[in-house]
Write a structure and sequence with these properties.
Helix content: 25-40%
Distance between the termini: 129 Å
Number of strands: 15
Order of helices and strands: HHHHEEHHEHEEEEEEHEEEEEEH
Amino acid sequence: MGDPSRSQSQNLYSILGIPKSASLSDIGKAYRSLVVKWHPDRNPSNKAEAEAKFSSINEAYRALSMKKREEDIACNGDHKSKTHKKKKSHDRDKDDNAELQISKPTLLSRTTSRVSPLTSPILPSISSRRCTTPPRMDFSGGNTPTTPTTPPPHFSKAASRRCATPIFFSQSAARRKPPPIEKKIECTLEELCMGCVKKIKVTRDAISASGLIVEEEEILMIQVKPGWKKGTRITFEGKGDERPGSLPADIIFSIDEKRHPVFKREGNDLELGVEIPLVQALTGCNIPIPLLGGGQINLFTDDIIYPGYEKIISGQGMPISKQGTRGDLRLKFLVEFPAELDDDQRSQIVSILQATS
């Protein structure tokens, strides 16, 4: 019977479509090509087959890359032991007791490109005499990081001999949040007076479980409260675009008022222009006054109304949410004068006005 482990190894090579003599670089290139080809998101018509192949490709890559690195580490270890075999015993003891010197230790973060303090659990393995911890890899991204098999220049010679574990790329570094995305949302005066619910569809970039950037759509609900003013800001945390190495951005919506054809807002008050003919301005009148949101009230006045005259109706303005009250409705009157008068009409007006002065 054949060796099961050897048969399994040959099967892993066939999954990636490479010979047994393939190098670590060849394994990485084959993996990148196949994982893009058989990604489930790119094969919607045969998703089940794509998911099975995608899983087997990942497993084959993990196993073969780990095996190849262990072989390289073993080869490097044998070469070093032969090189140092002829050294004197007291020099070897001196090296074994030498203190591990590390100048500005750092771990490189693949996702943030920032330098983070060397507080990773890999430290104990560096300081130990024999390091057998296998290298860790991150398979969430589209690119496969190349892990060095020799220590960086700032490690001491003692550390180089005692540990062949390579530095790995880490996603544990603190991630930054990008600036928020700001958008405006228009509301009518009726909506700001009565309150309403706004539904807004946003499209954003998100990182899938497989590490690819995909487009997502989401409906955000904004509960507009009565009395909100222009400039009111509503924040949705983490609803913006995602980028590798960064936290999702926030989305901030700012309230903007649509221009109303009849009313004008001034703070918590509403202004309404009312135009009446001269005869009603001088003799009194009963005027229907429209209200924001529908309905009307009848206003009777026997005052002499002149241009610029104002009348205030209390409690018919915009809601004041913190007080539970409402502002006022301010009526600004415009007097409509006749375009023409004959001589007789002029004479009569002069007589009336002179009598009142």
